[in-house]
Specification:
This protein has about 120 residues and is mainly alpha-helical. It contains 7 helices and 3 strands.
């Protein structure tokens, strides 16, 4: 796979498109609960994320599934069992989000940044 040569405009458009897939109050929180390759049932995610409604959790998971970030696994049993996990492509996002977290910690004037000096 060859690396594309970006212009300022195409790079901005690409980043905007990527952030569009991650926008929403809960998507990053959901992803951090799914990172690491494990599968989680819907009820586990619901308990792990206080304040999110069932409707919003379903909506966010469906959007990330349609974008190819999250996979949904339905087990044919009674009662129905549905699990969610991050796709390989979604898991590749983890280092980028970790870099953003590190960048945010270095903000001048924050206690974390001042502790590093």
């Amino acid at each position: 796979m060859s690396k594309l040569a970006y212009t300022a405009m195409t790079a901005a458009n690409g980043v905007e498109q990527a952030f569009g897939m991650l926008e929403g109050r809960w998507k990053l929180v959901i992803l951090f609960h799914l990172f690491g390759g494990g599968l989680k049932r819907f009820s586990e995610l619901e308990r792990a994320i206080p304040g999110i409604s069932q409707k919003m959790l379903i909506q966010q998971l469906r959007q990330m599934e349609s974008d190819g970030i999250v996979r949904r696994i339905v087990h044919q049993q009674v009662p129905p069992k549905v699990e969610y996990g991050v796709t390989d492509w979604g898991q590749a996002l983890c280092p980028a989000l970790d870099a953003i977290l590190t960048w945010a910690e270095q903000r001048p004037g924050t206690k974390t940044a001042e502790a590093r000096v």
